[in-house]
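haha ok so turns out i had the wrong file open the whole time. this is the CORRECT one, sorry everyone. sequence first:
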Amino acid sequence: MSEEKILVTAALPYANGPIHLGHLSGAYLPADIYARYQRSKGRDIIFVCGSDEHGVPITISADKEKVKPQVIIDRYHEINKKAFEQFGMSFDIYSRTSIPIHHETAKEFFLEYYNRNLLNEKKTNQFYDEKVKMFLPDRYVEGTCPKCGYEEARSDECENCGALYDPSELKNPKSKISGETPVLKETSHWYFPLGNYQTRLEKYIAEMDGKYGWKENVLQYCRGWFKDGLRDRAYTRDLDWGVAVPLPDANGKVLYVWFEAVLGYISASKELSKQRGDENLWKEYWQGKNTKYVAFIGKDNVVFHTIIFPAMLMAWNDGEKEKYILPQNVPANEFLNFEGKKFSKSRNWGIDVIDFLAEFPADSLRYTLAANLPENRDTDFYWKEFQMRHNSELADILGNFVNRTFTFAHKHFDGKVPPCSNLEAIDTEMLQLLKSYPSKVSEFFEKYKLKDGVFEIINLARAGNKYFNDSEPWATVKSDKDKCAATINISLNIIYTLAELLSPVIPNASAKIFKMLNSSPVKWDDCAEASLPDGLQLNDAEILFAKIEDSVIEQQVAKLGISANIQKPELQPKIGIEDFAKLELRTATIVEAERVKKSDKLIKLKVDLGFEHRQVIAGIGKSFNPEDLINKKVVVVANLKPAKLMGLESQGMILAVEKEDGSLSLLTYDEKVVNGTKAK
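then structure:
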């Protein structure tokens, strides 16, 4: 069997404005971490993206500026391409959908369906704005949903309740272009029979989920569409900007961007093949049976990548031509908010990537976003948290460990890797722990639990600091130089492993560390096994991350018109040490977790306290999915009187912290701590 190939795509950003931090957190950073990780494993992978450059929003922007649509897309394609480059995205190609090879690909798909009589031509009533003399796409008509009453529903779909309906059912429609009430005017379009593929799509998603474990948020979204029943979807639109419908009687009509844009992944791969001198190379990834295709997107793009695009590929594959593979997984993320509110261009709320990177290092942003990815629920970017992550974790934990180790090596061992002999228990335990890390982090990354993987990597830096402190090289350099040498040798090898494990997350800092070590990366699986050779001459140490001062962050927060000062909370009456001593805080492992029926807040947990198992009912359901809690190491208030919640007995309480947005973060501990240990 030929070697497995991996195809990674990231959602095509719309070339109508600059990308912001929410876009990075939703689709692009997760895709880049995953792609970089797979390359470091030595796997055959291509990573594809590009600008989505057709559709009405671009023509509206062009009309407002009195320029051609090409001016708009050229501007934002370059802005976003530059932002991605500065952020460290490692695309193999960043293409665009306005180029000829994309138009040819999109037309080829349409004609394949048309010539096989898959498409249905229908006359339909569509909203028309008589003031601006144009048919209005769905997003440019707003009214009241006939199902739930939501007042900002689109002409044929409500994003609030997910309902689909005929445009004639929308109540109180208004044109978002002119503000006038549009009229329904007859036009004709070709429709893709999406409903014909529902059974196959349900089977496909169930099979992929069974084999590879799709995320629950993605499955729930798909189930909602299937429950309502898939319908024929318009494949064309009345518009003069886009991929022209390749039929003689279709003047003024283009392919609907819903169907055309997703084909940008294929056309970008074709363009990459040409750049690499092999025009058929793309087929090895898109039509090879031994390819794993992973599509990284935000949750607003789920339907296109789990239902519409797979149905299009299924329809193509029913023909006589070479078959396309379908996504093996679509690990969509939820949304990242900004200081507790949704990013909003109209309300000037948020920050664009290009502006952020003009003032702060890319790696600091990558790490902060990676440590707080909205993998299962919406999360927030806060300036104060960004400062905390940068200063406390990157500078104090990682940077301090690297700096103190290099300083010691240069001062006491002539800037060379000292020999390592006569290991003691503390040394062998650290080496054993070190060897476990590549596979431990791999397990998370392979399951798209990138945030957990990043947490484990920084835990290794924490462990390195603890090992350094416990070994006391400042003392042993005087009393036992060989022991001191072993400490510095092992610390340098921890740093070497960290450089590799961190390379998908903070690639610039990783490259600096390798340069300081005067060494090159090895494969991921070997990074904890490969020892730096004794006597290797080290380069001078660099400061990886300089601290960010409070005044810098306060300046950023001031731009938003909110205060960066933390209000002092009202504390409960003071207690004596004897009152605190009454609490039995014990470490435990969560071994089972399930939601309590009829409650969106409560989760029933079984925790292992070492000496017994307990049932705890915890109000953490809005912040965690049950499956993500298994094997978490937590602290339990073990001597609470039993209480009943929703008819279930709770025999303790889990300690957690409530963040500014109301979400919870569990207090966890080092996995080496024995269950039942008393916390003091």
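Residues 564-568 have pLDDT under 50 and may be disordered.
again sry for the mixup
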